[in-house]
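Severity: low
Component: inverse-folding endpoint
Summary: output formatting inconsistent between runs
Steps to reproduce: submit the following structure tokens with default settings.
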């Protein structure tokens, strides 16, 4: 159903100038709806590079002015997209602050938009009955403004929703609850690194998502604190010049326990270097956090901006997902208080549901405002339900996977490892036999007692000793007779070649288990369901 809107179109108040809020403001301005958009920052500082999907770039492309050099710079130098054979563009990578700056430039061209941006700006109160907000101005005074609708696009902090919840009338309240599906690990981080001056690196893919992990990488990951029985889930993006790299993803739990900011930043830098080197083939010593020259103290604003940007070069935080029990509520005069982006549900950046969803929310929110200025709650609720379902479906599929996947992965492990152990049994060496006994006594893949980390260590030790045995045999003094010597050397050379192939195949099979690790996924998902049910039983809300 649609709300009963005000007879005169008061301005829409949009809180937050992220991609979602700016998109909503632009769409409203196009329709001739007066807009007040509020942001309590002086500038855009989010250096994260994100994956923009087809819907996002379709919207951005619709705003492009081919005669505007700033637009040319944005699309050709700040967005990285590969052109398809038919001339169209694939999904791309872009920095959040560049998207914000692009949208703000477009917004400033409209006369019916009141942009209030600055640290002194903000909403201090909201009266849902009279549909009035109290706006703080630069000079510290408070202005009372009537509105038709409020769009909360202020991110996961949800400050304006908290103001609404201060209302005496519970019908206006919006609660956020833990989502049933959660990330398998909540400790995540980001880091923005650059190629060191004077260093030339080979061209790399525009992005990578943890597809290059192999068995041998588990050791250096563990040396930096990784303690899980699966590879970390990560994303790596680069800029068009192949000179800046952005890491986001799971990090060792130990990093979040570091209290000293500088030490934590160093730990994040080391972790990001390792991940980028694995994913992009870049030497860790060739990239680093950018070192910026100092800013003079007499330029306070510039110094503050530089400090904030430096702090955002690395971030470490707990990623938990919560969603609102309502996407919008009806206010006293028939207007809507609607949630956009993270204000409605936390973004799971592993799936590109942050900026992409926020932009679509902003578009749908304005589309839901009818010609008579009423708000179509039914349409907006349906939109947010679809967004939430898509995220949950993708998370559930990754957590549990098709039922046939795990048996296939385990079966391949058994085949490849059996080949390796058969070769080990043929080696007449006490050290090989001892290492083989240790592996054979361990619980096998597919059993409840199987410990992948322990098994990987045992297998690694067996391979190491087998390799040493073959090397020793190849280096032994020649036996009497030329034919005997060459025969033995050829035999062990062939064995080394065969061993290398078998070891590689076994490691790949074990790596596939690490990547899939359905058992671990089921375990944490089951624990989460029990936790969520307990929270519901206790009526626990965030």
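Observed output (run 2 of 3):
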């Amino acid at each position: 159903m649609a709300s009963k809107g005000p007879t005169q179109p008061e301005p829409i108040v949009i809180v937050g100038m992220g991609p979602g809020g700016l998109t909503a403001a632009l769409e409203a301005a196009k329709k001739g709806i007066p807009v007040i958009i509020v942001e309590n920052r002086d500038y855009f500082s989010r250096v994260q590079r994100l994956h923009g999907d087809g819907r996002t770039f379709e919207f951005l492309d619709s705003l492009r002015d081919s005669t505007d050099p700033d637009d040319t710079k944005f699309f050709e130098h700040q967005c990285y997209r590969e052109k398809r054979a038919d001339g169209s563009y694939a999904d791309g990578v872009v920095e959040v602050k560049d998207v914000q700056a692009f949208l703000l430039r477009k917004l400033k061209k409209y006369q019916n938009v009141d942009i209030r941006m600055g640290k002194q700006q903000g909403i201090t109160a909201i009266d849902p009955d009279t549909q009035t907000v109290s706006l703080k101005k630069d000079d510290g005074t408070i202005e009372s403004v009537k509105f038709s609708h409020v769009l909360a696009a202020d991110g996961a902090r949800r400050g304006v929703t908290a103001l609404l919840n201060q209302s005496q009338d519970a019908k206006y309240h919006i609660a956020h609850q833990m989502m049933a599906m959660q990330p398998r690990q909540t400790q995540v981080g980001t880091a923005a690194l650059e190629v060191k001056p004077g260093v030339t690196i080979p061209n790399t893919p525009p992005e990578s998502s943890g597809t290059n992990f192999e068995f041998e990488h588990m050791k250096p990951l563990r040396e930096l604190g990784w303690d899980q029985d699966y590879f970390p889930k990560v994303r790596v993006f680069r800029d068009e010049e192949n000179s800046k790299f952005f890491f986001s993803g799971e990090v060792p739990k130990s990093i979040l326990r570091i209290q000293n900011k500088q030490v934590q930043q160093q730990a994040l830098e080391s972790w990001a270097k390792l991940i980028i080197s694995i994913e992009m083939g870049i030497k860790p010593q060739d990239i680093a956090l950018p070192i910026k020259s100092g800013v003079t103290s007499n330029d306070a604003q510039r110094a503050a901006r530089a400090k904030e940007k430096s702090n955002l070069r690395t971030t470490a935080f707990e990623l938990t997902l919560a969603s609102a029990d309502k996407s919008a509520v009806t206010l006293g005069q028939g207007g809507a208080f609607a949630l956009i982006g993270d204000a409605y549900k936390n973004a799971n950046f592993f799936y590109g549901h942050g900026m992409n969803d926020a932009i679509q929310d902003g578009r749908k929110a304005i589309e839901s405002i009818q010609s008579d200025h009423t708000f179509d709650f039914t349409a907006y609720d349906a939109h947010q339900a679809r967004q939430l379902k898509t995220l949950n479906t993708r998370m559930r599929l990754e957590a549990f996977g098709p039922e046939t996947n795990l048996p296939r992965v385990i079966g391949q492990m058994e085949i490849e490892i059996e080949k390796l152990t058969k070769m080990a049994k043929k080696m007449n060496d006490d050290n090989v036999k001892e290492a083989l006994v240790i592996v054979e006594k361990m619980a096998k893949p597919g059993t409840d007692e199987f410990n992948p980390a322990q098994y990987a260590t045992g297998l690694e030790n067996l391979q190491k000793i087998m390799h040493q045995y073959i090397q020793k045999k190849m280096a032994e003094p020649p036996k009497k007779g030329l034919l005997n010597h060459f025969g033995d050397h050829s035999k062990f050379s062939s064995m080394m070649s065969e061993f290398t192939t078998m070891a590689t195949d076994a490691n790949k099979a074990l790596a596939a288990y690490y990547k899939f690790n359905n058992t671990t996924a089921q375990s944490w998902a089951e624990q989460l369901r029990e936790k969520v049910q307990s929270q519901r039983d206790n009526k626990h809300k965030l």
